[in-house]
Amino acid sequence: MNAKSTVRAYWDKRSQTYDTTVYKSQVEAKQFWKTVLHGAIRTDKNLNILDVGTGTGFLALIFAEMGHNVTGIDISKHMLEKSRNNASKLGLTLNLMHGDAENLPFEDETFDIVINRYLLWTMPNPGCAVDEWRRVVKSGGKILLIDGNWYDSTVIMRFRRLFGSIIAFITEKKNPFTFMGYYARIKDQLPFFNGSTPGDIANLFAGAGLKNVSVNNLEKLREFENKNTSLSYKVSNTPSLFMALGEK
Hints:
By secondary structure, the protein is α/β, with parallel strands linked by helices. The chain is 45% helix and 20% strand.
């Protein structure tokens, strides 16, 4: 099984529990993210937005609630099904497609904004992905990438991740071995498996020909996630979160 097939299989399985373990309060999380996203796009105009790696549609649904036309694409059909169900519950319309973030099925210059959140670590060819995102965004449009430096190799953080896995198994019924059961065999094929830095993304964006590249360290987001995510997440993770923005 190649890297992309493994990633697809993992997220198909992970879709069964993903929505129940991210935030304690989805209402508070959505309101917080609306503030973050509105500050990034800096317009009240109705935009055509592509959410790459949409998963269960978290960002896509927020943009739809803000009045934008949103397309979400994901490699996992099961995650897309969760997204459809979530949209239906909220009475929102999303254009959802099954596809590859590194090979998008869209014409050139289709979207005003291309966004993704916590996606880059799953990708075998992140440079190709950014090139594709630039291709499908309109001239003057923006690419927003939200990511973090996920993996701290210190002894204390290794212990915390082990302890966090035990908590997740007890409180969330989440098997701590499932993740590495899938990813151990392919992690060396994923350049950003351990996370990325603002410098990494600035280089990717520059290599794709994007201009006016900027980075927001999202300190308030980190504080919010530390307060509003599950105990197992808080014990296991202290990511340095950031949003990179580049213009075409």
